[in-house]
Each structure stands twice: as structure tokens, then as C-alpha cells.
Amino acid sequence: MPPFVFAGAFCVSLIGAVVQSVCGFGYGPLNMSLLPYLMPYQQAVALAGLCGTTTAAMVAFSGWRHANWRKVWPATVTSIIVSGTFVWLSSFAADKLMLRLLGCVLIALGLYSLFLNGKIRIRPTVRNSVIAGAISGVTSGLFAVGGPPMALYLIGATDSNDEYRSTLNAHFCVNSIMTTFMRWRNGVFTAPVMHLYLLLLAALLIGAWIGTKIFHRLDQNKLRKAVYGYLIVSGLLLFLK
């Protein structure tokens, strides 16, 4: 493995783990903004999904008592079904098409976070939960970026930052069982991908630990603006790649 691949993946994984620990999501978008430059698209999605799942498990475990399954189970069940289908469909798509679609998703995510974040609140109904789960399943299956739709729904459904963060990451943990299984069936968990994943565990542990320590001290709005301003630029580059 070339040293620059490991160095790039390590740095973005460390930052992504911190962001996910603080904001509840963000590992997937950050990693998918860089990993497609370092490896084939399907392997990048597989690695980002596997590392994102590990980070989500760390965050969810640390605050498991705050997770509220009653508010999220319709979304989780829907997302499991939809994400598995779209992982399978993505295996037939050309890398160039997927990179351009990913670029569009990152741009849209960045623009929403910068200009509309906090201005839209969705009522916590079963129907809205299913819709959020379906959209999350599509983006999770195609791009390993399933957080934003669920985050938008849970902001209005949860009563505290701890409940929001823990419920969101508990959802990711369960949903990832399907996406990980389908990617394994598609044969994208190659030896180099698994080797790099094992090496990145240190970055995930350090990042999750840092995020847990600064969760209640950091200005989450400023962090989101910085992260998603970067994602807009990254999305444009991926779209034009």
C-alpha cells in the first residue's frame, strides 16, 4: 500500500470520527470526499461504510441509554430494506457516474447545512420516519452517506443532544448490517480494503475519544459550517473529475 494512501485515509478518518462524535453524523461525507481519489469507487464506499459503522458503534455504545428506538424503528426498518437494494444496484453503475452523483449529493448537503440547517423541522410521525429512512437508505446504499436525512428527521423528533446523537448512531449500527452484508456479497471487501480498515482502527478510536471529550464544549454550528463548506468544494471537484 502506498504511504500517501494510508496517510490520507488516516487523516480523513481521524477528522471524520471527531465530527461524527460531535455532530452525530459526518464521517461518511468527509471520507467519501477523499477516498475516491485513493482507490476505486466501490472499494472507497465499502471502506467508508465499514469505518463509519465502527465509529457509529463507538458513539452509540457510549450513550446507549439515551437511544430512543420508539422514535426511529420505522425509519430503521425501511432503511435496511432500501439500502440493501441500492448497494446491489450500485454494483452495476460506472465509477464515473457514481462520482458525479456523489459530487451532487455533497454539494446539496453542503448547501443545505450552510443555509437551511435548523430552519426546517420535520414532525416525528411514522410516515415521516419511513420517508427519512427510505431516503437515507438510498444515499447509504449508493454513497455510504446515510446520515443527513436521518439527522434532519431526528432533530425534530428527539428532546436532547444526547438522545439525538445516540439514537442516530444506534440507527446507523443496525442499518449497516445490511449494507455491509450486501457489499461483502458484491466482493468489494478485498484484502487491501480490510488491511487498510484494520490500520485505520487507531484513527477511529482516537477520533471518537476526542469527539466524546469535546462534545459539550465545541460550537457544533461552527463545526458544521466549516465541514460542509469544504464538502461543497469537494463535491464540485468530484463532479468535474
CA(first)-CA(last) distance: 23 Å
Largest pleated sheet = none
Average per-residue pLDDT, rounded, comes to 82
The total count of strands amounts to 0
What is the C-alpha radius of gyration, as a whole number of Å? 16 Å
Beta content comes to: under 5%
> How many separate domains?
1
Helix content: over 70%
Q: Rough shape?
A: globular
What is the string of SSEs from the N terminus onward? HHHHHHHHHH
Briefly note the structural class of the backbone. Answer: mainly alpha
* Spans where pLDDT lies below 50 across 5 or more residues: none
DSSP summary: helix tally: 10
How are the secondary structure elements laid out?
Layout (H helix, E strand, L loop, with lengths): L2 H21 L3 H6 L8 H22 L6 H22 L4 H21 L10 H18 L3 H11 L3 H25 L5 H24 L5 H21 L1
Helix pairs in contact: 1-3, 1-9, 3-8, 3-9, 4-6, 4-8, 5-10, 6-7, 7-8
